[in-house]
């Protein structure tokens, strides 16, 4: 699996297919037992803790439900990585934070607490926080989960626009086929820890691969079976009578 | 056959439980060392620790002081009743003072501290873990042990002795209200006996040592249980319970151990 610089790449698959694990491997929260994850040519597994932290400073991550710090305001949340990693003075930090919040359209919500935000707004604040240090790579863990159609469209557009405007590389882990086909450059389909299929959005739309078709068309049964593996139905029913 | 089966199953459960308890204790001490190692970087941001002293200490003031007052008033009544039977009603001051400074201050304040502040810290850290705030922090290259855990640990360790001291002060005041004002023990005798009978060394210092040790134990248990909680609603709830139960038992057990050593040091045993 390769994630080229400057592109938006989606990793798709059903729940439990190992998508989030890939992000954790890239970010070094999990260490690969087999194989290698290279970020800018460096093997994540072999980094020391200091090197890993240095690498993470150049990676932004958007967690599934935002993972905003609930004891801080929106402003402080976005300022957090800047304050932790730089010695900029407060006036400059204020300007930077307002710029990041403006980019996601939430400059007006700077003094809110995370509890006062809707799901979509929280996701956008988390996005502003993820790009606070102008990272080279932003990872999105299910950025579309649980959003209404408008918020979903906004977040999708933001991912694309920020990627192009800031020259970052984006990895989007999602199971939302429709939205990702609109915004990404390349898709990987994974299942049970393996890459099943891959291609550009155009190729995916025309694909005849049964797994891709099941996924794109949302069919309940196919290569991914509807039934969890079980004993034969008749055998199990008969056994209960005996 | 089935009998030996259930016997071996029982044995296995005991064994597994023992191994789990030992490995958890070991994990907790490694965690303790890690927190101590992160302390210098946490001290750079003193305002974080100050904030935790506010949450653990200042916000516990009301419950600690009211409890101290009532415990002191009850001590005054019960103490006078018992002492007066032997004609020693005048010794109320020293009786109350010693009980509070040596035992009740550190122990009762510690128990209240575990349930008021310890549970809050566990629940807060546990929920931060559940909502991926700790993961998010790690991904921002900020160590949660330095940013979240160490300030809460030290906030508790610093607050606890101060709360125990205030508890004792309020207790003495409560005993004064009941003993002198209500029952009519002589004012001068009450305070004079107390002054003569309680020494800074060893009585008060021993009380301070106890409250510091309890503060370390409760704070360590609270941050550890929060950090180690299962990231689910049940996990955080169970962790909070473990903090209160484990913290309270740790205080009572440590109190016994410390008391044994302190009295041996005095040559009284």
Question: Can you characterise this structure?
Answer:
- The complex is a heterodimer of chains A (242) and B (269).
- Chain A is an alpha/beta fold.
- Chain A has 2 domains: 8-197, Rossmann fold; 208-242, no CATH class.
- Helices cover 43% and strands 15% of the residues of chain A.
- Chain A contains 10 helices and 8 strands.
- Chain A has helices at residues 19-27, 49-56, 74-85, 90-103, 119-130, 149-166, 177-183, 201-206, 210-217, 233-241, and strands spanning 8-12, 38-39, 42-43, 59-62, 137-141, 169-174, 186-191, 194-199.
- In chain A, strands 4-5-6-1-7-8 form a 6-stranded mixed sheet, with helices on both faces. A two-stranded antiparallel sheet of chain A has the order 2-3.
- In chain A, helix 5 packs parallel to helix 6.
- The model of chain B has no long low-confidence stretch (mean pLDDT 92).
- With 269 residues, chain B is an all-alpha fold.
- Chain B has helices spanning 2-43, 46-56, 61-85, 92-130, 133-139, 144-183, 187-197, 200-228, 233-266.
- The radius of gyration of chain B is 22 Å and the shape is globular.
- Chain B has one domain (2-266).
- The longest helix of chain B is centred in the first third of the chain and has 42 residues, at 2-43.
- Chains A and B meet through helix 2 and helix 3 of A and helix 5 of B.
Strand content of chain B: under 5%
Biggest sheet of chain B: strands, sense, closure? none
In percent, how helical is the residue content of chain B? over 70%
CATH superfamily of the largest domain in chain A: P-loop containing nucleotide triphosphate hydrolases
Largest sheet report of chain A: 6 strands, mixed
Number of helical segments of chain B?
Answer: 9
Task: Give the overall form of chain A.
Answer: globular
What is the percent of helical residues of chain A? 40-55%
Through-space gap between termini of chain B: 54 Å
CATH topology assignment of the largest domain in chain A: Rossmann fold
- What's the number of structural domains of chain B? 1
Q: Give the low-pLDDT segments of chain B.
A: none
Category from helices, strands and their pairing of chain B: mainly alpha
Q: Quaternary arrangement of the chains shown?
A: heterodimer
Distance from first to last alpha carbon of chain A: 52 Å
The count of DSSP E runs of length 2 or more, i.e. the number of strands of chain B, is: 0
Radius of gyration of chain B: 22 Å
Fraction in beta strands of chain A: 5-15%
